[in-house]
Amino acid sequence: xxxxxxxxxxxxxxxxxxxxxxxxxxxxxxxxxxxxxxxxxxxxxxxxxxxxxxxxxxxxxxxxxxxxxxxxxxxxxxxxxxxxxxxxxxxxxxxxxxxxxxxxxxxxxxxxxxxxxxxxxxxxxxxxxxxxxxxxxxxxxxxxxxxxxxxxxxxxxxxxxxxxxxxxxxxxxxxxxxxxxxxxxxxxxxxxxxxxxxxxxxxxxxxxxxxxxxxxxxxxxxxxxxxxxxxxxxxxxxxxxxxxxxxxxxxxxxxx
Length: 256
Description:
Elements lengths: L1 H22 L11 H11 L3 H34 L1 H14 L4 H12 L3 H25 L3 H9 L4 H39 L5 H9 L5 H29 L12
């Protein structure tokens, strides 16, 4: 319990500092409302049907994006991790695509597939693909070669080796990649909603309330909700990983 309590103490300290800065007049309460106002506004937002629909739309797009990313990245990582020649042949294109920020791809995606839910899902998949794939490749390098050679000596097919030997051994690494990608996908989805002007979504709601309005408490409150969602996703997956992989000695920190 020491770690959660320290985290809570840090959060409370930050909120108190924020409140004090606002109350003594170091910043304008109009543009940077104090947390006492923001937290009350957050409670009111959950009674707003449009805001709740936005959260549901965002989380649904996030869930679809992360599921597609897993379905693509895990098989790709297993193949690239098990065939060095293929990994070398694709290294240039992978290293070219990986650093491209999601925001730079928004105009291209809008031109190709439009501004519907497909746009934010596509960019969510793109952003979250890489940590899962690279963690899977790294996990493949950590497998005891004796296991793979024994399976080959028994005449096991490559597909069976990857699915029955490699995948269970790399599961902790894959899960670490999923945990990293989960928050990345959420950032990509919300950012796309905000920048691409989606019809519904948390990012779209933030864009609307931040344009032509003096209700900065709404902007801060909805932004804090987005951050809270990311925290809950990461914390939930971290706790799930500890339960699923108690036997593993893998460091669950980022292998980015």
